[in-house]
Amino acid sequence: MYNSYELNESVRRVLDLYSQSLIKIAFAYLKNIADAEEVAQEVFLAYLQKRPAFENDEHEKAWLIRTAINKSKNMLKTGWFRSRNPVPENLSYLPEEENEILQAVLALDKKYRIPIHLHYFEGYTIQEIAVIMQAKPATVGTWLARGRFLLKKKIGGSENEEICL
User: Fold this and answer.
1) Which DSSP string do the residues of the chain spell out, in sequence order?
2) Tell me, what's the pLDDT at 84?
3) How far apart are CA 43 and CA 78, in angstroms?
4) Rounded-to-integer distance, Cα 164 and Cα 120, Å
5) CB 40 within 8 A of CB 19
6) pTM for this predicted structure
7) 43 pLDDT above the threshold of 90
8) Residue 10: which of 53, 66, 71, 62 has the closest Cα?
């Protein structure tokens, strides 16, 4: 078990390492930064309350991401959340090209949006995404391919041109 100093150091380390990633993952589901930050806070609260034991850092990160996904899905199910339109209208703080790409990614169905985010923004492999999303690797590969195809149609570009995310 942790003493209070070890617990504080553990939480501080996890916050430093993963807070931005968890906010981005939640944002990919919720399309609202305030809600994404709330989900990240709930994930860290669960981490503090449960104090799970992990085999290694990758196991810890996967647990945090899975928890963020589950909490994001739960938020999406609430009546309050469904009754509003959280899609951001203006992301003027981003360069124009990044804004266009982010808007196109956010407009995708979540079955394409989440794997694309995990792969391109978080650096996960198809195998790792399959574990996180509790899906078969072939299914994740299909989601990525279809998501890329839909992005190419939205953003424009030739069939052979790679989209820079």
Assistant:
1) ---HHHHHHHHHHHHHHHHHHHHHHHHHHH--HHHHHHHHHHHHHHHHHH----SSHHHHHHHHHHHHHHHHHHHHHSHHHHTS----S--TTS-HHHHHHHHHHHHS-HHHHHHHIIIIIT---HHHHHHHHTS-HHHHHHHHHHHHHHHHHHH---TTPPP--
2) 52
3) 18
4) 9
5) yes
6) 0.61
7) yes
8) 53
Q: How many CB atoms lie within 10 A of CB 49?
A: 8
* Domains and their CATH numbers in the chain: 1-87 (1.10.1740), 91-165 (1.10.10.10)
Residues with Cβ within 8 Å of residue 107, at least 6 apart in sequence? 154
Contact call for residues 22 and 132 (beta carbons, < 8 A): no
Query: CB under 8 Å to 136, separation ≥6 — which residues?
Result: 130
Residue 16 CA to chain centroid, in angstroms?
17
How far apart are alpha carbons 115 and 131 in whole angstroms? 11
- Name the token pair of 59: 């196991």
Reported as a pLDDT band with limits 50, 70 and 90, residue 6 is low
Q: How many residues comprise the chain?
A: 165
Spatial contact of 26 and 72, defined as CB atoms under 8 Å apart = yes
Cα torsion 96, 82, 66, 100 to 10°: value is -10
